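Hello Y.,

Per our agreement to keep a running log of every chain we model this quarter, I'm adding this entry. I've kept the format consistent with earlier entries: sequence first, then predicted structure.
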Amino acid sequence: MTVIQLKRSNVAGRVPTAAQVAEGSLAINLADRKLYSKDAAGEVFQIGATAADPSAYLFLSATDGTTLYIGRLAWDDFPATGPAEAAAEWTIYKITTNAAGDVVLEQSATGAWSSKESLPYS
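Predicted structure for the entry above:
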């Protein structure tokens, strides 16, 4: 099994610099539960964040070494009771890699986290 390891930090508030992240690659702050990438202009941005909701909840799960699911759930979509994973309005990104770890397909869908493997991705 291939393990996908992201650049990561366990220090709260730490954001990767442009020099630490390649364009389109991912970095995660485990303490803050925030995911970052870098765009073509060289700017680091938080995935799932907007000006109105900069602290979106993020969840990561690697299922088989070649498929990575990244889920985003806005605070407004959190269930009134129960765990966040029970919400029906996740935005889920599916990233497929080859054996060398290169990204070969990126897709997204909306639905329940528990249904992530069977959602209609596009």
